[in-house]
Structures are given as C-alpha cells and as structure tokens.
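Q: How would the structure tokens look for this protein?
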Amino acid sequence: MSQTVRRKAPSARKVAQAQGTARKVRTAKAKTGSALDSVMAWLPISEEQLHRVFLAVFLGGAVALAWAVAASAGLPALAGQQLAAIAGDAGFEVRRVDVRGVKNLNELKVYERVLTQRDRAMPLVDVEALRQDLLGLSWVEDARVSRQLPDTLVIDIVERTPHAVLRKPGRLVLIDATGRELEPITAARAKGRLIVSGPGAARQVVALSGLLEAAPALKPQVAEAEWVGNRRWNLTFKTGQVLALPEGEKPSAGALVAFARLDGTNRLLGGRVAAFDMRAPDRIYLRVPGRSEQPQDKAVIIKAAPAETTAAAKPATTATKQEDDH
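A: Here is the predicted structure in token form.
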C-alpha cells in the first residue's frame, strides 16, 4: 500500500524573498540592456562591425603575443615567415595593383616592376625597395607604394615635367628642367618647344633657365639655345636671327638684358640683321646678309649701353667681325 508524503510548503517569507530577488535581476538586466543599447546607438558602427573590431583586436593581440614569444626564443625571422604564410592563407596577398598619377609615362613599365609581387603575402612586400625600383624610371620624379588590405598595392606616381628638347646626334630627346632625359621624340612632337644643343648642354639647362629669366620679354621668342665651346650660349630666335652671348653668368645675363632694351627701342628682331655678336663688353657686331661680300664692310658695329643704364644704340664705324669660337 503506497503512501504519499507531503513536503512542507515554503513559508510566505521565503516566497516574498524569491520574488524580490527575481525583480532585482529583471531590473538589472533591463538597465544593462538599456545602457548597452544606448552605447550601440551612439556608436557610428553596427553591432556586427563592432564584433569584427573586437575580433580583429583579439587576433592582433594573439599575433603580437606569438611574435613576442618567437622573438624571445630567438626565432623572429621564422615567426615572420609563419605570420606571412598565415596572412596569405587568409587572403592577405597581392592580387590587384592600382596605379595612379600616370599621364606621360608608359604604364606598362610600372606594372612590369610591380607585378613581380603578385600572389606574395602582404607582409612580405618590401614597399621601400619597390619604390626605389620605380624611381629608376625616367619619367618618375617621386613614387609612393602603400598596401590597401586585403589584396591591393597602391602606386602613386609623381611625373617629371617636360621642359625642353635636347638635340643629340641623329635624334631628339625630351628633357625636364634639370636636364634629365625623359624619352626620345619625333620632330613633330618637338615643334614649339625650346631646343637645346651642343656638347654638355643638358648639364647647363638650369643655368639657361636662369639666363632667360633675366629678360622675360625675349624668353618666349627664343627657339633654340646652343652651348658653344662648353663656356657660352648662342641663342636662335623664332625669326631665325642668332645672338652670340659672352662667357660667364653675369656677363651673359647683362648682355641679354641690354639686347632686350635695344630691341625695344630699335626693333632688332625681325629686321635685316642675321646675327648679333655681343661678346665684346661695350658693343654689338651686326652681320647683315649681302654686306659680307664687301671686304671692307663685313659687319656693322653699334655701341651698347651697359645693362644697368638705358640708352639707344648709336651707329659707329664699320669693323671686321670677331672670329667665331665654334
């Protein structure tokens, strides 16, 4: 015969305590959830993105710890290779190349150098060595190489600016303002650009720019500059007339300024004179076509005022032109 044993029911006091505890738990949960919701609403990212951030921080900490352990064990290189392999397996390897800033440079030359890094793990890409390689290209003045995770190398190119054309034996070469050769060009592409010629002329391009700045009114009229005897310039204007300047930075600049003033008052450019020789410090020798047939009248001389003063040219007696120093 079975017998039912009845347990003593909990007292009202215990029931009240249990209910009070449950209310406190519910209140705490509600407050915590409300505070967390407020924080999440304030953050400019979603909850999923926040989880990713926490995961990235966690993994980063794990990687840093692993590196520290490997370094303390004397195996930093091995640790680096292992980390790079892990990064590559996770998709952090070079799969795309983004080249920016290229206008004149053949973009294929950039890709030829960068694509050697294709499929390489991002941590193993030596961005500085790659930058130095790109600086070897004639058009590249500066370059920046950066990683854009997970799989892109970004190449920012700063190109050199074309300045003039260097005439070399049998070809024309585009150069920048420092005289650096950029690329060979055709005569059609060289049209309208300043042409520089003569042995060692490329090394004098910076000095030539300073010389022409001394007479801004004449600068756009200069079609060609020939470096003569490795010591002075002959300037050919768009009119076809030639101006022989003296040696030295200051004498040549002074002579060019004096010529500009004389041209302003006497309209020398576009006239009958074929050549002007200003190698003498106080006068200009003028070569007039047709007059050289007369032995006693090979050239006309006019006295030139110094560059610091303004004076009109004065006709003088005739004289024999100085010998050219080509």
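The CA atoms of residues 70 and 174 lie 54 Å apart.

The first strand starts at residue 96 and ends at 100.

Upvote if useful.
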